[in-house]
Amino acid sequence: MRRRRINREGFAALLPVIDGDDDVVRDLLKTLPNGQASPFSRLSGVQFVRAVLIRFRVRNGRERSDVPWCLFFAAEFDALVGGFLETLCTTLPVECDQLFGHCDGYPGVGAPTAFKSWMLEHRVLPGWTVIGNPITSDEVGRCLALRQHIIEFALDTQGLDPAGLHQRWTNEDW
Known about the structure:
Elements: E1 11-16, H1 22-31, E2 46-54, E3 70-77, H2 81-91, H3 93-100, H4 112-121, H5 137-156, H6 162-171
Antiparallel strand pairs: 1-3, 2-3
Helix pairs in contact: 2-4
């Protein structure tokens, strides 16, 4: 069986935050759920997403007042960049407006083509990408769910004798 090719191009962007909105973005990022509760987990094929508020500094540690705060947004996914950005915009419209709505020039999700162009205008090429297992994020999710199922099974059956353990094992929906 031949595996399908998985695109691992990734995406990263530096999005300038509107002057004075950095506290709002900071608070939003603090309250954004992560893991399975993350809104980004609703996107099919996403390996990971990171959003970080950053401020550039000069060598002595002083902030660069001539450069605005920026939202650094990065993602790894099993799709082409354009498809990922369109899916991001159409699947998470409320979250996109909340997160990116404090960034300079944000066109909103009402125009997916403009959203995609805006994100690509702010794209930065990181020079590397994380390529883990050569499987899709859906396969990773199924493997993690199976791992959790096995852990729970082991904990639930610790006191069983061999016959009882065998009975439970064969009755499980693996």
